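Q: A reviewer asked whether we had any structural model of the full assembly, not just the individual parts. We don't, so I'm hoping you can provide one. Inputs are below.
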Amino acid sequence: KNEVEQSPQNLTAQEGEFITINCSYSVGISALHWLQQHPGGGIVSLFMLSSGKKKHGRLIATINIQEKHSSLHITASHPRDSAVYICAVLFGNEKLTFGTGTRLTIIP
Amino acid sequence: EADIYQTPRYLVIGTGKKITLECSQTMGHDKMYWYQQDPGMELHLIHYSYGVNSTEKGDLSSESTVSRIRTEHFPLTLESARPSHTSQYLCASSELGSWKDTEAFFGQGTRLTVV
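A: Here is a predicted structure for the entire assembly that you could use as a starting point for your response.
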């Protein structure tokens, strides 16, 4: 049973729209990673969070420890943002548990 | 830019062949990991290493084996490939801290097809 749930599974939006991807987990965690997987398969680490909020360019990641929930936001979305976004959490041990990912498609 | 490399990127091979997937990193990281990912599915840890001569099996049972003779190199071997091994294999590395403190670095992946 996957203890990390992402929503939506698929998201299609027009260029320029504000995007939100959600991640919920079942029990307390040590840290949460947001990853971006490109169509070729390579993965890039976007953020690592244990509390609060982080911002990098047009990307913003937030985490609410009490609600066991994190969101990844993309402002002014662009077709090059099209990718699979993966939430990965650390449940207190050294092994990351991954969500199934959200496939984002931005249409020009 | 992450300095972790996987070769080959794509491999189509016949059943019964022995294959080795290469993973190398130039960041001096002690920790390295192999993940398996089926299409549309989450990544699953199959092997990890905390340093030279250290290898452990991950959460997902795998018929593959790994070795860690050098810090920068963590190859994965399948002695006899089968169609059930068809998947994407991703290598990752991190510093010797916890995933809580360190960024994750992933390779580009090897997409393996066994026919």
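A: Points you may want to mention in the reply: Chain B has a mean pLDDT of 90. The radius of gyration of chain B is 13 Å.
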